[in-house]
Automatic annotation (TrEMBL):
Protein family membership: Belongs to the ABC transporter superfamily.
This protein's name: ABC transporter ATP-binding protein
Molecular function via GO: ABC-type transporter activity; ATP binding; ATP hydrolysis activity
Any single Gene Ontology cellular-component annotation: membrane
Keywords per UniProt: ATP-binding, Nucleotide-binding, Transport
Annotated ABC transporter domain residues: 39-258
InterPro entries for the chain: AAA+_ATPase, ABC_transporter-like_ATP-bd, ABC_transpr_TagH-like, Bact_Polysacc_Export_ATP-bd, P-loop_NTPase, Wzt_C
Organism annotation: Hymenobacter lutimineralis
Length: 418
């Protein structure tokens, strides 16, 4: 392990059984095989009803670095974190840690519901290897960070999920871990708490700490992480920069085109007009690049003429949370029946490199109601902007810049020195 590497994970795998009975039986066999190494060697493959929750995962984490773990529900993120935290034993592979791991995984874990928040601080700290006398000097700071007030004396069973998250984060963050594991807890905190945690994480990273963050929230990942690892059915599907990892993760969910089932793109009596597709190309019909003209083409197919309609497209961030920009026709159109293509030009692509989601619609201008729509759940409504190599630096920024503004700078004249 090189000097700056604080965590090295090699070929990590974990298997589970789908059935409780076999899980219990295999559990007993595994205990036996620990004592009898020949049986252990035989148990490296999958047994009946077993599946890999995590398979052959390899990565490194350096001091001062934050790595996002992304993946759909059930991809293996929590299993990975539990093994990193020592709560679960891998079936294969190796984890090497330099320093102490502070973990904030699964809200309920490590909190005793019958004890107060204050007492639970000692319980959680004990799980992380701290004695009572080591925790005592840190107690005021931990309690202040939670902002729980008098509720710190209340049994934790009466805490809301946000209150539990405050307590868990405050403890994990204030015991000076070398690596902080943060599971999806930020999602349950209110806005102020999220901001407080994000600020804390930035300071902690600047002081040389390292973070592994499991999150589905793109803005959290972009604010904190430089790198990202995408898990897909327990395997590493992508590893690289945080922005590229988010692109991969969202493309995995929105961009496969699999949702456009047979017959979906055919007009019917109950849905006489459909949008078959929207494409975005550069001026030569090739890839779209920042600052260049974009050609937009919408192909519709209608069993009947469409009088008094307009068409529009909207471009969203790749998690679908922000509509960046859109275009609308300003006058009512008379569109003929049949399959036809509508054209528009975006005169200058304001978007930086990345993948974007698109929605398009043809709507009735009087009723302001869609006649036909195409969303990102329908293939192939996507826009990919590719930066030429000279612009790639933008793409790698930690906080992603979505659009480029045209700015005219007006400087104050410098005072004349006499
Ligand atoms: N103790 C267990 N016994 C059996 N299967 C398990 C166990 N823990 C996790 N799994 C399975 O392992 C797979 C990965 O689960 P895991 O909780 O790691 O996913 P995740 O990526 O954290 O999902 P989410 O985003 O929903 O939290 C799932 O199929 C899950 O059902």
């Amino acid at each position: 392990m090189s000097a700056s590497v604080v965590l090295s994970v090699q070929g990590l795998s974990k298997k589970f059984s789908r059935h409780l009975r076999t899980a219990l039986w295999y559990g007993l066999l595994d205990i036996g095989s620990e004592l009898w190494p020949r049986a252990k060697a035989a148990a490296t493959g999958l047994r009946r009803h077993e599946f890999w929750s995590l398979q052959d995962v390899t990565f490194e984490l350096r001091a001062g670095e934050a790595l996002a773990i992304l993946g759909t529900n059930g991809a293996g993120k929590s299993t990975l974190l539990k093994m990193l935290n020592g709560l679960m034993k891998p079936d294969a592979g190796r984890i090497q840690v330099r320093g102490r791991v502070g973990a904030l995984i699964e809200l309920g874990v490590g909190l005793d519901p019958t004890l107060s928040g204050r007492e639970n601080i000692f319980v959680r700290a004990a799980l992380l290897g701290f004695t009572r006398s080591q925790v005592l000097p840190l107690l005021p700071e931990i309690i202040a960070f939670t902002e729980l007030g008098d509720a710190i004396e209340m049994p934790v069973q009466f805490y809301s999920s946000g209150m539990s998250a405050r307590l868990a984060y405050a403890v994990a963050a204030h015991l000076n871990p070398d690596i902080l594991l943060v599971d999806e807890v930020l999602a349950v905190g209110d806005f102020n708490f999220q901001r407080k945690c994000l600020n804390h994480m930035m300071g902690y990273l600047a002081r040389g700490g390292s973070i592994i963050l499991v999150s589905h929230a793109a803005h959290h990942v972009q604010a904190v992480c430089q790198r990202g690892l995408v898990l897909e059915k327990g395997r590493v599907a992508f590893q690289g920069g945080a922005t590229e990892a988010l692109d991969h993760y969202f493309a995995q969910q929105f961009g496969s085109g699999a949702r456009s089932g047979p017959g979906r793109l055919t007009p019917t009596a109950s849905r006489p007009a459909i949008i078959e597709g929207v494409t975005f190309t550069g001026p030569q019909g090739g890839p779209v690049e920042p600052d260049e003209e974009i050609r937009v083409q919408l192909t519709y197919n209608s069993l009947q003429a469409l009088p008094g309609v307009a068409w529009s497209f909207l471009i969203y961030t790749n998690d679908g949370s922000i509509c960046i920009t859109g275009g609308y026709t300003t006058q009512a159109l008379q569109l003929p029946a049949g399959r036809h293509t509508l054209h528009a030009r975006i005169l200058r692509c304001p978007l930086t490199a990345g993948d974007y989601l698109v929605r398009a619609s043809i709507y009735d201008v009087n009723l302001i109601q869609p006649v036909a729509m195409l969303g990102w759940e329908d293939a192939p409504a996507q826009l990919s902007v590719q930066a030429p190599p000279s612009l790639e630096k933008n793409y790698q920024q930690i906080i992603r810049q979505l659009v480029t503004l045209e700015v005219e700078w007006t400087h104050l004249a410098a005072p004349q020195l006499t």
